[in-house]
Amino acid sequence: MTGQITAPRVLVAQISDLHVKPAGLRAYQHVDTAAALARCVKELNRLVPRPDLVVISGDLVDAPSKAAYDHLVQLLSPLEIPFAAVPGNHDDRDLMRVALPDGYARAAGALHSLRAIHEIDVVLIDSIVPGRDYGALDADALTWLQGVLVASPARPALLFLHHPPFVTGIGHMDVQNLRNAGEFAAILRQHQRARLVAAGHVHRATLTSFAGAAATICPAPNHAVALDFNGDLPPSFRIEPPAFHLHVWFAGDEFGSIVTHWIPIGDFEGPYRFFDDRGELL
């Protein structure tokens, strides 16, 4: 059985929380984040159809240094799809701007950016507070975002930032969320064209709604924050199946629709056919 796509579509892959170290080092003494990113890039390159853009939603490196960013650039070099990035709390704006000098809204300060991809706008919002694990959007960030959303009122917009603006139930991560989520939500409620709010930071695939838009957290290609709702554990991680998100926008009434797929990283059996040449179920 096959389905035919008749409406225009845009594919945006999201990877997050790469935590790359200088060559030869592991994150938290256990996680080979370089090998994990290499596998992720391989998976992205073999997607069919190819995404129109890859968004990296923060924590590109584990501890900011020129050596770590140099290693990151080396690991991303085989990626055959255009990409854009926002920083996370583990990143340094100045080092990141030098390593990935592409498309930022300003020559200094926050690393906001906007990408017009076919029929949609991809809005990348820098939510970091230097020296802090939690996030916030300062007055300049809110003004920039409002200006971007006002500028093209007929175009659907997908918004990416590092810090989730909603709680997950994992206490030690929720205290690191976006501190002024209410101000962020107030802007989004003015603009129905905002179809998706996609975050990182928690290393877990998570789905909810926020200010009238679909809202997600992207899984990581390396390690997952332990799913600890009761607070029984110290802040901990697990090695779970690595994955990323593929957001697919479909044209339709008004601002279209958005569907998010969880894409596992690795080699798996298949594809196998459901039906034989006579149309009989196998």
3D structure, described in words:
- By secondary structure, the protein is α/β, with parallel strands linked by helices.
- Helix content is 20%, strand content 23%.
- It contains six helices and 13 strands.
- The strands form three sheets. Strands 4-5-6-7-9-8 form a six-stranded mixed sheet, with helices on one face. Strands 3-2-1-12-13 form a five-stranded mixed sheet, with no helix packed on it.
What's the structural blueprint in terms of helices and strands?
Elements: E1 9-15, H1 33-45, E2 53-57, H2 66-76, E3 83-86, H3 93-99, E4 113-117, E5 120-124, H4 139-151, E6 157-160, H5 171-174, H6 181-188, E7 194-199, E8 206-210, E9 213-217, E10 224-225, E11 237-238, E12 243-250, E13 257-264
Parallel strand pairs: 1-2, 2-3, 5-6, 6-7, 7-9
Antiparallel strand pairs: 1-12, 4-5, 8-9, 10-11, 12-13
Helix pairs in contact: 1-2
Give the structure's gist in a few sentences.
By secondary structure, the chain is an alpha/beta fold. It contains six helices and 13 strands.
Comma- or semicolon-separated keywords:
20% helix, alpha/beta, 282 residues
Inertia-based shape: globular
**Numbering strands along the chain, what is their spatial order in the largest sheet?**
4-5-6-7-9-8
Give the number of DSSP strands.
Answer: 13
Strand content: 15-25%
Taking the alpha carbons of the first and last residues, their distance comes to 13 Å
Mean pLDDT: 95
Work out the helix count. Answer: 6
* String of helices and strands: EHEHEHEEHEHHEEEEEEE
Percent range of helical residues: 10-25%
Structural class: alpha/beta
Outline the low-pLDDT stretches.
none
- Major sheet: 6 strands, mixed
Evaluate the radius of gyration: 19 Å
